[in-house]
Amino acid sequence: MRITVNGQPMDVRDGLSLDELLAELGVRREYTAVAVNREVAPKSTYATRRLSEGDRVEIVRPMGGG
Amino acid sequence: MQDSPLVIAGREFTSRLIVGTGKYPSYEVMKQALEASGAEIVTVAIRRVDLSGGESLLDHLDPARYTLLPNTAGCYTAEEAIRTAYLAREAGLGDMVKLEVIGDSRTLFPDVQGLVEATKVLAREGFVVLPYTNDDPVTARKLEDAGAAAVMPLGAPIGSGLGIRNPYNIKIILESVSLPVIVDAGVGTASDATIAMELGCHGVLMNTAIAGARDPVAMARAMRLAVEAGRLAYLAGRIPKKLYATASSPLEGLPDWASS
Fold first, then answer.
1. Is B98 an annotated catalytic residue?
2. Are A40 and B87 within 8 A, CB to CB?
3. Closest CA–CA distance from residue B100 to any residue of chain A (Å)
4. In this predicted model, what pLDDT tens digit does every residue of B65-98 receive, in sequence order?
5. Do residues A36 and A55 touch, judged by C-beta distance below 8 A?
6. Do B21 and A58 make contact, defined as CB atoms within 8 angstroms?
7. In angstroms, how far is the first alpha carbon of chain A from the final one?
8. What predicted TM-score, i.e. pTM, was given to this entire model?
């Protein structure tokens, strides 16, 4: 299935969980937050949250800013 | 003279200078500048993770040492700003947020309607909301009513370095709300920070003035001293301004130089 991660289209296997996606992308978990289709996904739901075709995932972290 | 701490929603801070983490020439310079500024609160932006890897801000910034204040920079609606605040909280940055709802891309002036709306929602959800606002006393009061923990009026547009363009409004804001007033944006050099503090502001927030200086570390120290100087002068109580001179030396006891 095709999803979008941080604006990039990505082909992933059906039913991939958020937890698995983050592991595959090698994203560090600390000070990181995830939103799926504009809704914030609590960390406690990563393992059970299955992604679906067309999902838009945003993975964010603190960056330099004023 | 003993100063009281800066208190934001019951949390005490010794430093009245809040510093941003953007636009430094390198992480190393940023680290040294933050150190030289004496700041305890530093602002951060919330942005997409670089999926190709690489260094991250928090590899260079100890969250145990600094209170991280996430901003909602780049948000043009209350909804975007609220979502960003939630993301920051979920990322583990705590519940303080520097709330920005921008109304215009050229001036980066706030959309005060969206700002008040977002403040109301986030305060209700338990956030400690520090809204970046106009130098408008009426909006400041609305933000207080909406549940803000402080108000942060701009001195001048973000990154402009124009200083405190309307000190009288800042003064009126100070009299209009019973919250900490922190000048956020517009500071260009040390004297601007001093002026803000002399007016009675509780703190100053800046980024570009330090990060964009030729020597950011030296400017960070200058800002630290400027904020302290302004605060001390405010507490000390300045003399009133007068149009004519008042002699500092006694008028009596002058020798007589008149020639016979």
1. yes
2. yes
3. 11
4. 999 999 999 999 999 999 999 999 999 999 999 9
5. yes
6. no
7. 38
8. 0.93
